[in-house]
Protein backbone atom coordinates (compact mmCIF):
# COMPACT_ATOMS: atom_id res chain seq x y z
CA UNK A 1 0.00 0.00 0.00
CA UNK A 2 1.21 3.49 -0.81
CA UNK A 3 0.55 6.59 1.31
CA UNK A 4 0.50 9.48 -1.14
CA UNK A 5 -0.19 9.67 -4.85
CA UNK A 6 2.11 12.50 -5.91
CA UNK A 7 4.67 11.82 -8.65
CA UNK A 8 6.61 9.27 -6.57
CA UNK A 9 3.55 7.32 -5.41
CA UNK A 10 2.10 7.23 -8.93
CA UNK A 11 5.35 5.98 -10.45
CA UNK A 12 5.74 3.32 -7.79
CA UNK A 13 2.12 2.23 -8.21
CA UNK A 14 2.70 1.80 -11.95
CA UNK A 15 5.87 -0.23 -11.40
CA UNK A 16 4.20 -2.53 -8.87
CA UNK A 17 1.11 -3.01 -11.02
CA UNK A 18 3.27 -3.91 -14.03
CA UNK A 19 5.03 -6.49 -11.90
CA UNK A 20 1.65 -8.01 -11.00
CA UNK A 21 1.47 -6.76 -7.40
CA UNK A 22 -1.92 -5.92 -5.87
CA UNK A 23 -1.31 -2.27 -4.95
CA UNK A 24 -3.48 0.66 -3.82
CA UNK A 25 -2.82 4.36 -3.15
CA UNK A 26 -4.32 6.38 -0.31
CA UNK A 27 -4.24 10.05 -1.33
CA UNK A 28 -5.32 13.14 0.57
CA UNK A 29 -6.12 15.26 -2.49
CA UNK A 30 -9.55 14.96 -4.11
CA UNK A 31 -8.11 15.16 -7.63
CA UNK A 32 -4.66 15.11 -9.19
CA UNK A 33 -4.88 18.90 -9.73
CA UNK A 34 -1.99 20.77 -8.20
CA UNK A 35 -2.26 24.36 -7.04
CA UNK A 36 0.88 26.21 -8.15
CA UNK A 37 3.54 25.06 -10.56
CA UNK A 38 6.36 23.35 -8.57
CA UNK A 39 8.53 21.17 -10.82
CA UNK A 40 9.31 22.61 -14.22
CA UNK A 41 10.16 19.35 -15.91
CA UNK A 42 12.18 16.22 -16.38
CA UNK A 43 15.87 15.58 -16.73
CA UNK A 44 17.40 13.25 -19.27
CA UNK A 45 17.72 10.23 -16.96
CA UNK A 46 14.07 10.45 -15.93
CA UNK A 47 13.02 10.58 -19.57
CA UNK A 48 15.11 7.42 -20.12
CA UNK A 49 13.39 5.71 -17.20
CA UNK A 50 9.97 6.56 -18.64
CA UNK A 51 11.20 5.36 -22.02
CA UNK A 52 12.02 2.00 -20.40
CA UNK A 53 8.32 1.67 -19.65
CA UNK A 54 7.21 2.85 -23.08
CA UNK A 55 5.59 6.04 -21.78
CA UNK A 56 8.23 8.71 -22.50
CA UNK A 57 6.37 9.79 -25.65
CA UNK A 58 3.33 10.81 -23.60
CA UNK A 59 5.48 13.37 -21.79
CA UNK A 60 7.53 14.41 -24.81
CA UNK A 61 4.34 15.08 -26.77
CA UNK A 62 3.13 17.59 -24.18
CA UNK A 63 6.34 19.30 -23.11
CA UNK A 64 9.17 21.00 -24.88
CA UNK A 65 12.73 19.74 -25.01
CA UNK A 66 15.58 22.13 -24.34
CA UNK A 67 19.06 22.34 -22.81
CA UNK A 68 17.99 22.92 -19.20
CA UNK A 69 20.74 21.30 -17.13
CA UNK A 70 22.85 23.69 -15.14
CA UNK A 71 24.75 24.17 -11.91
CA UNK A 72 23.75 27.30 -9.99
CA UNK A 73 22.32 28.51 -13.29
CA UNK A 74 25.63 28.02 -15.09
CA UNK A 75 24.34 26.21 -18.21
CA UNK A 76 25.56 22.68 -18.89
CA UNK A 77 24.93 21.58 -22.45
CA UNK A 78 24.27 17.84 -22.59
CA UNK A 79 23.64 17.56 -26.33
CA UNK A 80 26.80 15.48 -26.82
CA UNK A 81 26.10 13.06 -23.94
CA UNK A 82 25.45 9.51 -25.17
CA UNK A 83 21.73 9.00 -24.62
CA UNK A 84 18.67 9.01 -26.88
CA UNK A 85 17.41 11.96 -24.86
CA UNK A 86 20.28 14.49 -24.68
CA UNK A 87 18.03 17.26 -23.33
CA UNK A 88 15.60 18.09 -20.55
CA UNK A 89 11.86 18.41 -20.94
CA UNK A 90 9.99 21.55 -19.90
CA UNK A 91 6.64 20.38 -18.50
CA UNK A 92 4.94 21.64 -15.35
CA UNK A 93 4.39 19.21 -12.51
CA UNK A 94 0.58 19.28 -12.79
CA UNK A 95 0.92 17.88 -16.33
CA UNK A 96 3.52 15.32 -15.22
CA UNK A 97 1.15 14.11 -12.49
CA UNK A 98 -1.85 14.04 -14.84
CA UNK A 99 0.02 11.90 -17.38
CA UNK A 100 1.34 9.54 -14.68
CA UNK A 101 -2.15 9.27 -13.18
CA UNK A 102 -3.54 8.35 -16.60
CA UNK A 103 -1.00 5.53 -16.89
CA UNK A 104 -1.76 4.28 -13.37
CA UNK A 105 -5.45 4.37 -14.21
CA UNK A 106 -4.85 2.18 -17.28
CA UNK A 107 -3.05 -0.27 -14.98
CA UNK A 108 -6.19 -0.27 -12.80
CA UNK A 109 -4.55 0.75 -9.54
CA UNK A 110 -7.22 1.85 -7.04
CA UNK A 111 -6.69 5.32 -5.56
CA UNK A 112 -8.59 6.02 -2.34
CA UNK A 113 -8.93 9.79 -2.62
CA UNK A 114 -9.74 12.36 0.05
CA UNK A 115 -8.40 9.96 2.63
CA UNK A 116 -5.28 10.12 4.73
CA UNK A 117 -3.02 7.57 6.28
CA UNK A 118 -3.15 8.64 9.93
CA UNK A 119 -0.94 5.97 11.50
CA UNK A 120 -0.01 2.31 11.26
CA UNK A 121 1.02 -0.76 13.22
CA UNK A 122 3.33 -3.38 11.78
CA UNK A 123 3.97 -6.98 12.77
CA UNK A 124 5.94 -9.84 11.29
CA UNK A 125 3.52 -10.51 8.46
CA UNK A 126 2.19 -7.12 7.45
CA UNK A 127 1.14 -3.57 8.18
CA UNK A 128 -2.25 -2.27 9.34
CA UNK A 129 -2.57 1.27 8.06
CA UNK A 130 -5.10 3.54 9.71
CA UNK A 131 -6.97 5.42 7.06
CA UNK A 132 -9.27 8.36 7.76
CA UNK A 133 -12.98 7.71 7.12
CA UNK A 134 -12.69 3.97 6.72
CA UNK A 135 -11.56 0.81 8.43
CA UNK A 136 -7.83 0.16 8.44
CA UNK A 137 -6.18 -1.41 5.41
CA UNK A 138 -3.87 -4.40 5.78
CA UNK A 139 -0.94 -4.76 3.41
CA UNK A 140 2.30 -6.70 3.19
CA UNK A 141 4.24 -3.42 2.98
CA UNK A 142 3.53 0.28 3.38
CA UNK A 143 5.51 2.84 1.39
CA UNK A 144 5.46 6.46 2.52
CA UNK A 145 5.32 8.55 -0.67
CA UNK A 146 3.63 11.24 1.36
CA UNK A 147 5.99 14.16 0.77
CA UNK A 148 8.39 16.17 2.87
CA UNK A 149 6.19 16.28 5.97
CA UNK A 150 5.68 12.51 5.75
CA UNK A 151 3.48 11.09 8.47
CA UNK A 152 4.72 7.61 7.62
CA UNK A 153 8.32 8.66 8.25
CA UNK A 154 7.42 10.19 11.61
CA UNK A 155 5.20 7.30 12.70
CA UNK A 156 7.95 4.84 11.79
CA UNK A 157 10.30 6.76 14.09
CA UNK A 158 12.76 7.34 11.28
CA UNK A 159 15.03 10.28 11.96
CA UNK A 160 15.28 13.11 9.45
CA UNK A 161 18.62 14.76 10.12
CA UNK A 162 19.88 17.72 8.18
CA UNK A 163 19.85 21.47 8.14
CA UNK A 164 17.09 23.85 9.23
CA UNK A 165 16.00 26.49 6.74
CA UNK A 166 18.04 29.68 6.49
CA UNK A 167 16.12 31.31 3.66
CA UNK A 168 12.54 31.28 2.45
CA UNK A 169 11.07 32.05 -0.94
CA UNK A 170 7.60 33.01 -2.07
CA UNK A 171 6.33 31.50 -5.29
CA UNK A 172 3.09 32.64 -6.84
CA UNK A 173 0.99 32.81 -9.95
CA UNK A 174 -0.52 36.27 -10.23
CA UNK A 175 -1.62 39.01 -12.62
CA UNK A 176 0.57 42.13 -12.83
CA UNK A 177 -0.81 45.58 -13.57
CA UNK A 178 2.60 46.98 -14.57
CA UNK A 179 5.25 45.59 -16.90
CA UNK A 180 8.07 44.25 -14.68
CA UNK A 181 11.72 43.51 -15.34
CA UNK A 182 11.26 39.98 -16.62
CA UNK A 183 13.90 37.37 -16.00
CA UNK A 184 16.20 36.27 -13.22
CA UNK A 185 17.80 38.66 -10.78
CA UNK A 186 20.43 37.79 -8.20
CA UNK A 187 21.42 40.00 -5.29
CA UNK A 188 22.68 39.67 -1.74
CA UNK A 189 19.36 38.11 -0.69
CA UNK A 190 19.51 35.42 -3.33
CA UNK A 191 17.72 34.68 -6.56
CA UNK A 192 14.42 36.13 -7.78
CA UNK A 193 12.55 35.44 -10.98
CA UNK A 194 9.66 36.96 -12.88
CA UNK A 195 8.32 35.20 -15.92
CA UNK A 196 5.16 34.54 -17.81
CA UNK A 197 3.55 31.28 -16.89
CA UNK A 198 3.18 30.22 -20.49
CA UNK A 199 6.28 29.78 -22.62
CA UNK A 200 7.45 28.23 -25.86
CA UNK A 201 10.79 26.74 -26.80
CA UNK A 202 12.24 28.34 -29.93
CA UNK A 203 15.53 26.99 -31.30
CA UNK A 204 16.15 25.24 -27.99
CA UNK A 205 15.61 28.45 -26.00
CA UNK A 206 12.82 29.07 -23.52
CA UNK A 207 10.80 32.05 -24.83
CA UNK A 208 8.04 33.37 -22.57
CA UNK A 209 4.83 34.59 -24.16
CA UNK A 210 4.11 38.30 -23.86
CA UNK A 211 0.66 37.85 -22.32
CA UNK A 212 -1.09 35.94 -19.55
CA UNK A 213 -0.41 35.51 -15.82
CA UNK A 214 3.05 35.70 -14.30
CA UNK A 215 5.03 33.24 -12.23
CA UNK A 216 6.82 35.13 -9.49
CA UNK A 217 9.55 33.78 -7.27
CA UNK A 218 11.13 36.07 -4.72
CA UNK A 219 13.57 35.43 -1.91
CA UNK A 220 12.34 36.87 1.39
CA UNK A 221 14.44 39.25 3.43
CA UNK A 222 13.88 37.19 6.58
CA UNK A 223 12.98 33.55 7.01
CA UNK A 224 9.17 33.50 6.72
CA UNK A 225 6.78 31.76 9.13
CA UNK A 226 5.38 28.30 8.36
CA UNK A 227 1.87 29.77 7.95
CA UNK A 228 0.37 30.26 4.48
CA UNK A 229 1.65 33.47 2.86
CA UNK A 230 -0.72 36.23 1.73
CA UNK A 231 -0.77 38.64 -1.22
CA UNK A 232 0.45 41.29 1.21
CA UNK A 233 3.52 39.16 2.08
CA UNK A 234 4.26 38.80 -1.62
CA UNK A 235 3.83 42.52 -2.21
CA UNK A 236 6.25 43.36 0.61
CA UNK A 237 8.83 40.86 -0.59
CA UNK A 238 8.68 42.28 -4.13
CA UNK A 239 9.00 45.85 -2.89
CA UNK A 240 12.06 44.88 -0.83
CA UNK A 241 13.77 43.55 -3.95
CA UNK A 242 12.40 45.54 -6.90
CA UNK A 243 11.16 48.70 -5.13
CA UNK A 244 7.63 48.00 -6.45
CA UNK A 245 5.13 45.13 -6.42
CA UNK A 246 4.18 45.80 -10.08
CA UNK A 247 0.51 46.01 -9.06
CA UNK A 248 0.14 42.29 -8.34
CA UNK A 249 -3.44 41.06 -8.09
CA UNK A 250 -5.71 38.06 -8.68
CA UNK A 251 -3.35 35.33 -7.38
CA UNK A 252 -4.23 31.75 -8.29
CA UNK A 253 -1.57 30.42 -5.92
CA UNK A 254 0.91 31.74 -3.37
CA UNK A 255 3.15 29.44 -1.40
CA UNK A 256 6.40 29.47 0.49
CA UNK A 257 9.32 27.07 0.28
CA UNK A 258 12.66 27.08 2.03
CA UNK A 259 16.17 25.77 1.70
CA UNK A 260 15.57 23.17 4.41
CA UNK A 261 17.80 20.21 3.61
CA UNK A 262 17.13 16.88 5.28
CA UNK A 263 17.32 13.19 4.54
CA UNK A 264 15.79 10.16 6.21
CA UNK A 265 18.42 8.26 8.16
CA UNK A 266 16.91 4.97 6.94
CA UNK A 267 14.74 4.32 3.90
CA UNK A 268 13.35 1.16 5.48
CA UNK A 269 11.98 0.25 8.88
CA UNK A 270 11.03 -3.43 8.53
CA UNK A 271 7.80 -3.41 6.44
CA UNK A 272 7.69 0.33 5.99
CA UNK A 273 9.68 2.15 3.31
CA UNK A 274 10.09 5.76 2.22
CA UNK A 275 10.44 7.23 -1.27
CA UNK A 276 10.60 10.67 -2.87
CA UNK A 277 10.28 13.81 -0.76
CA UNK A 278 9.32 11.66 2.24
CA UNK A 279 12.94 10.48 2.16
CA UNK A 280 14.69 13.69 1.15
CA UNK A 281 14.01 17.42 0.96
CA UNK A 282 16.26 20.15 -0.41
CA UNK A 283 15.94 23.46 -2.25
CA UNK A 284 14.57 23.16 -5.80
CA UNK A 285 17.66 24.61 -7.49
CA UNK A 286 18.68 22.35 -10.35
CA UNK A 287 15.20 20.83 -10.56
CA UNK A 288 16.07 17.47 -9.08
CA UNK A 289 13.47 16.56 -6.41
CA UNK A 290 10.69 15.12 -8.51
CA UNK A 291 13.23 13.49 -10.77
CA UNK A 292 15.01 11.54 -8.05
CA UNK A 293 11.62 10.66 -6.51
CA UNK A 294 10.58 8.95 -9.74
CA UNK A 295 13.92 7.20 -9.88
CA UNK A 296 13.56 6.03 -6.24
CA UNK A 297 10.21 4.53 -7.24
CA UNK A 298 11.71 2.61 -10.14
CA UNK A 299 14.55 1.29 -7.99
CA UNK A 300 12.15 0.16 -5.27
CA UNK A 301 9.30 -1.11 -7.45
CA UNK A 302 10.82 -4.26 -8.90
CA UNK A 303 12.52 -5.16 -5.62
CA UNK A 304 9.31 -4.91 -3.65
CA UNK A 305 7.55 -6.97 -6.33
CA UNK A 306 10.23 -9.68 -6.07
CA UNK A 307 9.93 -9.84 -2.28
CA UNK A 308 6.11 -9.69 -2.18
CA UNK A 309 6.01 -12.42 -4.83
CA UNK A 310 8.28 -14.61 -2.68
CA UNK A 311 10.93 -14.74 -5.40
CA UNK A 312 13.65 -12.88 -3.47
CA UNK A 313 14.59 -12.61 0.19
CA UNK A 314 13.63 -9.51 2.18
CA UNK A 315 17.28 -8.46 2.27
CA UNK A 316 16.85 -7.33 -1.35
CA UNK A 317 14.94 -4.35 0.08
CA UNK A 318 18.05 -3.17 1.90
CA UNK A 319 19.76 -2.59 -1.42
CA UNK A 320 17.13 0.12 -2.02
CA UNK A 321 18.58 2.20 0.82
CA UNK A 322 22.15 1.24 -0.09
CA UNK A 323 21.69 2.45 -3.67
CA UNK A 324 19.31 5.38 -3.34
CA UNK A 325 20.45 7.05 -0.10
CA UNK A 326 23.81 8.12 -1.58
CA UNK A 327 22.06 9.52 -4.68
CA UNK A 328 19.89 11.88 -2.62
CA UNK A 329 22.81 12.69 -0.29
CA UNK A 330 24.70 13.92 -3.35
CA UNK A 331 21.70 16.01 -4.43
CA UNK A 332 21.45 17.51 -0.94
CA UNK A 333 25.11 18.43 -1.15
CA UNK A 334 24.88 19.96 -4.62
CA UNK A 335 21.75 21.98 -3.78
CA UNK A 336 23.39 23.42 -0.67
CA UNK A 337 26.39 24.47 -2.75
CA UNK A 338 24.19 25.92 -5.50
CA UNK A 339 22.04 27.86 -3.04
CA UNK A 340 25.10 29.72 -1.81
CA UNK A 341 26.31 30.39 -5.34
CA UNK A 342 22.96 31.95 -6.22
CA UNK A 343 23.46 34.74 -3.71
CA UNK A 344 25.35 37.67 -5.00
CA UNK A 345 28.12 39.67 -3.46
CA UNK A 346 31.50 40.34 -4.96
CA UNK A 347 33.19 37.35 -3.36
CA UNK A 348 30.46 34.91 -4.34
CA UNK A 349 30.46 36.38 -7.87
CA UNK A 350 34.20 35.74 -8.01
CA UNK A 351 33.66 32.15 -6.97
CA UNK A 352 30.85 31.76 -9.49
CA UNK A 353 32.99 33.16 -12.30
CA UNK A 354 35.77 30.76 -11.36
CA UNK A 355 33.36 27.83 -11.38
CA UNK A 356 31.85 29.01 -14.63
CA UNK A 357 35.32 29.01 -16.19
CA UNK A 358 35.92 25.51 -14.87
CA UNK A 359 32.58 24.22 -16.17
CA UNK A 360 33.42 25.68 -19.56
CA UNK A 361 36.12 23.00 -19.85
CA UNK A 362 35.01 19.79 -21.44
CA UNK A 363 35.71 17.20 -18.76
CA UNK A 364 34.28 19.15 -15.77
CA UNK A 365 31.24 20.07 -17.88
CA UNK A 366 30.64 16.39 -18.71
CA UNK A 367 31.00 15.35 -15.06
CA UNK A 368 28.60 18.00 -13.79
CA UNK A 369 26.18 17.54 -16.69
CA UNK A 370 26.06 13.83 -15.87
CA UNK A 371 25.37 14.66 -12.21
CA UNK A 372 22.66 17.22 -12.87
CA UNK A 373 20.90 15.28 -15.63
CA UNK A 374 20.97 12.05 -13.61
CA UNK A 375 22.85 10.22 -16.37
CA UNK A 376 25.95 9.83 -14.21
CA UNK A 377 24.12 7.49 -11.86
CA UNK A 378 26.55 4.95 -10.44
CA UNK A 379 25.65 2.53 -7.68
CA UNK A 380 28.61 1.21 -5.75
CA UNK A 381 28.57 -2.50 -6.54
CA UNK A 382 32.30 -2.96 -6.13
CA UNK A 383 34.96 -3.60 -8.73
CA UNK A 384 34.18 -5.06 -12.11
CA UNK A 385 33.05 -4.17 -15.60
CA UNK A 386 33.00 -0.39 -16.29
CA UNK A 387 29.20 -0.50 -16.71
CA UNK A 388 28.64 -2.25 -13.34
CA UNK A 389 26.25 -0.13 -11.25
CA UNK A 390 25.63 2.28 -14.10
CA UNK A 391 22.44 2.75 -16.08
CA UNK A 392 21.46 0.21 -18.71
CA UNK A 393 22.29 1.74 -22.10
CA UNK A 394 19.52 1.69 -24.69
CA UNK A 395 21.51 -0.31 -27.23
CA UNK A 396 20.27 -1.06 -30.71
CA UNK A 397 20.00 -4.83 -30.77
CA UNK A 398 19.73 -7.30 -33.59
CA UNK A 399 17.72 -10.35 -32.57
CA UNK A 400 16.35 -13.37 -34.39
CA UNK A 401 13.07 -11.41 -34.60
CA UNK A 402 14.69 -8.35 -36.11
CA UNK A 403 16.08 -5.07 -34.76
CA UNK A 404 15.05 -3.98 -31.27
CA UNK A 405 15.98 -1.37 -28.68
CA UNK A 406 16.96 -2.62 -25.20
CA UNK A 407 14.37 -0.31 -23.61
CA UNK A 408 11.60 -2.00 -25.61
CA UNK A 409 12.46 -5.21 -23.74
CA UNK A 410 11.93 -3.40 -20.43
CA UNK A 411 8.37 -2.17 -21.03
CA UNK A 412 6.94 -4.95 -18.81
CA UNK A 413 9.29 -4.09 -15.91
CA UNK A 414 10.40 -7.74 -15.77
CA UNK A 415 14.00 -8.97 -15.57
CA UNK A 416 15.76 -9.49 -18.89
CA UNK A 417 19.03 -11.31 -19.47
CA UNK A 418 20.72 -10.24 -22.67
CA UNK A 419 23.10 -12.78 -24.13
CA UNK A 420 25.44 -10.86 -26.42
CA UNK A 421 27.69 -13.86 -26.94
CA UNK A 422 27.06 -17.22 -28.64
CA UNK A 423 23.30 -17.56 -29.38
CA UNK A 424 21.85 -20.45 -27.38
CA UNK A 425 24.94 -20.43 -25.18
CA UNK A 426 22.96 -19.84 -21.98
CA UNK A 427 20.41 -22.19 -20.47
CA UNK A 428 17.83 -20.47 -18.25
CA UNK A 429 15.20 -23.19 -18.24
CA UNK A 430 14.82 -23.30 -14.49
CA UNK A 431 14.41 -19.48 -14.36
CA UNK A 432 12.19 -19.19 -17.43
CA UNK A 433 9.19 -18.00 -15.39
CA UNK A 434 11.20 -15.13 -13.90
CA UNK A 435 13.73 -13.94 -16.45
CA UNK A 436 13.35 -13.35 -20.14
CA UNK A 437 16.47 -14.53 -22.01
CA UNK A 438 17.20 -12.73 -25.27
CA UNK A 439 20.01 -13.70 -27.63
CA UNK A 440 21.17 -10.59 -29.42
CA UNK A 441 23.93 -8.80 -31.17
CA UNK A 442 24.37 -5.07 -30.92
CA UNK A 443 25.63 -2.32 -33.13
CA UNK A 444 28.48 -0.78 -31.13
CA UNK A 445 27.80 2.90 -31.65
CA UNK A 446 30.16 4.53 -29.21
CA UNK A 447 30.17 4.59 -25.45
CA UNK A 448 26.94 4.88 -23.47
CA UNK A 449 28.76 5.85 -20.34
CA UNK A 450 28.46 9.59 -19.64
C1 LIG B 1 8.89 25.75 -5.93
C2 LIG B 1 9.29 24.36 -6.24
C3 LIG B 1 9.88 24.08 -7.45
C4 LIG B 1 10.27 22.78 -7.74
N1 LIG B 1 10.88 22.53 -8.93
C5 LIG B 1 11.29 21.29 -9.22
C6 LIG B 1 11.88 20.99 -10.48
O1 LIG B 1 12.02 21.86 -11.34
N2 LIG B 1 12.26 19.71 -10.70
C7 LIG B 1 12.09 18.72 -9.80
O2 LIG B 1 12.47 17.57 -10.07
N3 LIG B 1 11.51 18.97 -8.61
C8 LIG B 1 11.10 20.21 -8.30
N4 LIG B 1 10.50 20.45 -7.12
C9 LIG B 1 10.34 19.37 -6.15
C10 LIG B 1 9.11 18.52 -6.47
O3 LIG B 1 7.95 19.33 -6.49
C11 LIG B 1 9.00 17.42 -5.42
O4 LIG B 1 10.25 16.80 -5.26
C12 LIG B 1 7.97 16.37 -5.80
O5 LIG B 1 6.66 16.88 -5.79
C13 LIG B 1 8.04 15.19 -4.83
O6 LIG B 1 7.09 14.23 -5.19
P1 LIG B 1 6.54 13.23 -4.09
O7 LIG B 1 5.49 12.41 -4.78
O8 LIG B 1 7.66 12.53 -3.44
O9 LIG B 1 5.88 14.14 -2.96
P2 LIG B 1 4.64 15.16 -3.10
O10 LIG B 1 4.61 15.78 -4.47
O11 LIG B 1 4.72 16.04 -1.93
O12 LIG B 1 3.36 14.22 -3.00
C14 LIG B 1 2.98 13.68 -1.77
C15 LIG B 1 1.53 13.27 -1.91
O13 LIG B 1 1.11 12.64 -0.69
C16 LIG B 1 -0.14 13.14 -0.29
N5 LIG B 1 -0.17 12.96 1.18
C17 LIG B 1 0.58 13.58 2.11
N6 LIG B 1 0.35 13.08 3.34
C18 LIG B 1 -0.57 12.10 3.17
C19 LIG B 1 -1.21 11.19 4.07
N7 LIG B 1 -0.92 11.18 5.38
N8 LIG B 1 -2.10 10.31 3.56
C20 LIG B 1 -2.39 10.30 2.22
N9 LIG B 1 -1.81 11.13 1.35
C21 LIG B 1 -0.91 12.02 1.80
C22 LIG B 1 -0.15 14.58 -0.75
O14 LIG B 1 -1.47 15.05 -0.93
C23 LIG B 1 0.61 14.47 -2.08
O15 LIG B 1 -0.24 14.21 -3.17
C24 LIG B 1 10.07 21.75 -6.79
C25 LIG B 1 9.45 22.02 -5.57
C26 LIG B 1 9.06 23.32 -5.30
C27 LIG B 1 8.41 23.64 -3.98
Write a structural description:
There is one protein chain. The protein is α+β, with helices and mostly antiparallel strands and about 450 residues long. The protein is about 30% helix and about 25% strand. The chain is built from eleven helices and 28 strands. It has helices at about 5-20, 45-50, 55-60, 95-105, 150-155, 230-240, 290-310, 320-340, 345-360, 360-375, 405-410; strands at about 1-5, 25, 40, 65, 70, 75, 90, 110-115, 115-120, 125-130, 135-140, 140-145, 160-165, 170-175, 185, 190-195, 200, 205-210, 215-220, 250-260, 260-265, 270, 270-275, 280, 395-400, 400-405, 415-420, 435-440. A hairpin with a 2-residue loop joins strand 17 (about 200) and strand 18 (about 205-210). Helix 1 runs parallel beside helix 4 (about 95-105) and helix 1 (about 5-20) packs parallel to helix 7 (about 290-310). It is globular. The model has no long low-confidence stretch (mean pLDDT about 95). Bound molecules: flavin-adenine dinucleotide (FAD). The site of flavin-adenine dinucleotide has 32 residues, from helix 1, strand 2 and helix 7. Flavin-adenine dinucleotide binds near residues 146, 151, 287, 290 and 293.
